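user: can you give me the structure for this one chain? tokens are fine.
assistant: on it. calling the predictor now.
[tool input]
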Amino acid sequence: MSPGTSSFADFLGDHQPDLLPGRRAVPAGNAGELAPHGTTIVAATFPGGVVMAGDRRATMGNIIAQRDIEKVFPADEYSVVGIAGTAGLAVEMVRLFQTELEHYEKIEGTTLSMDGKSNRLATLIRANLGLAMQGLAVVPLFAGYDLTTDQGRIFSYDVTGGRYEETAFHSVGSGSLFARGALKKIYREDLDAEGCVTAAIQALYDAADDDSATGGPDLARRIFPVVHVITADGGRRVPDDEVAAIADRIIAARMQRPDGPAAALT
């Protein structure tokens, strides 16, 4: 390794480029329907942090390929990444991103800034453009706590690696339109962490209500969304029993009002 090489992806590209997801030879044609796809991820900020949640369903065309896939992963101590798109490639990209951040910290002796992390992820997405053109797209959502500005931040991407900072909340995946619509109705800037988690799960419920590729809470199997909360103290995955308790309250309320809570008109 050359001195000062702080990018693990660059190092891998120089020495064994075939291990990078976007460098692998793929036959011509569209392979989009041949692999499971992960769907809806939501993120929302609150005073002191940010929440990210993802449903648990993966699909292959009209088939449910997996009911309990995990789509939200810690990137490092203060950031988290959620995946939408081709599930296998997305998980591989997340692992490479995690290694990239760990490698940088070991080489430089400090962590990357939030802008630096989001830019590194954009580079990895851009390297996958060739596969995206064949239907194997990966479109993650990145969020974390910025220790410099003392606030939660959210970044979205397109398949070319374009990076966009979002305000307050965002969603990606096939159910994102419905999830964002729900958050527009119920999100408030003064939500605490639990309220923000509840809003995220409500949004995923609404997404599952209208998008067949998004999985709602599975009461029979007790499968619920994966939820992470990141604050100045670091990131943590909300325990399954806490998520289940919130989901159970939401479902009980939906028995009375199927369309969910109403927003004030003022």
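assistant: here you go. Residues 87-108 form the longest helix (22 residues). The CA atoms of residues 158 and 226 lie 23 Å apart.
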